[in-house]
Amino acid sequence: MTDLLDIIAGLLGRGEDLVLARVISVKGSGPRHVGSSMVIRRDGGIEGTVGGGLIEAAAQKKAVDLFREKGFARLSFDMTGDDLTAADMVCGGKLELLLEHLPADKATSEIFAGLLSSRRHNHRSFLVTTLPAADKGTGPLEHRVLMPGSTCATGSDGSAGISGRLTDMVHGLAGSALVEIEDHQFWVDLILNTGVLYLFGAGHISREVNDLAARVGFMTVVLDDRAEFANRERFGQPAEVVVLKAFDDCFTGLKLDDDSYVVIVTRGHLCDKVVLEQALRTNAGYLGMIGSNRKRDAIYKALLSDGFTAEQLEKVHCPIGLKIDTETPAEIAVSIVGELIEVRAQKRKWNVLASRQ
Q: How far apart are CA 5 and CA 323, in angstroms?
């Protein structure tokens, strides 16, 4: 659900209710993993995906009822039978969806606005949803938000003991999960920072990278010293646009960590070098610079003479992007964002492994 937080919070903030669908269980092979989410609007439009095809069609059909009933439902799909081949549901596993109507009231809007703020500030948080015994019902589900160090208040289960055990289990999760304690079930959404992308340069390639990166969940910040390029007319939401006085000291005020991605696509070699030599002194988890091998070698030679080491320069992705044949700014953006996705996925795998040790 992390990637859909901007959309959910935006719709609720504008007074639009919605139905949120999540994959809460997968046994065997499924079209989407546990935690995959989709937003369904009143007009039937969707954002995100829970598997496509008949699964999403069934979810959209059920959403019509939920908008009317203002309730929830759990839908199960069995994709193991031979008779499903013609229906294009041949993954060979079983999948369960949780569909929930989210009203655009003050309490619900504040919950998701708070989760969005937590993600933007790089805080790990959890949305805990209590699941009743019945597979469907009317009225809103009960939600509780956990932050690091916080505890689950006693909910409708009425047991402080269950809440304490739930707190311990939730804080130990490496991903969204269905949690069972005695006869009670809880769905837990893990909300993580999906990565902050700092785009140095606001030219044609940067514009394409921004749009594509935002679509795959990165929070984007565009920085340039040209106001005619770095502006809201060229870079819309969710980008933050910063007009610099110059690229000197362009990292002042920025807090970069392992979830920070720096892409250098300024208007020239000299500006690229100025940005890169500052970026090498940060804790950014990814550094990438556009340019040919010849350009890279010239800049690296200058940086080595300035005291940087070969080990530091080995961390830079240059030429930036996946090795595919590209020409247009849009094609180059696909290459760059593809590499960002690959690096982010590897980081997530390492984080999951570390959390289990």
A: 32
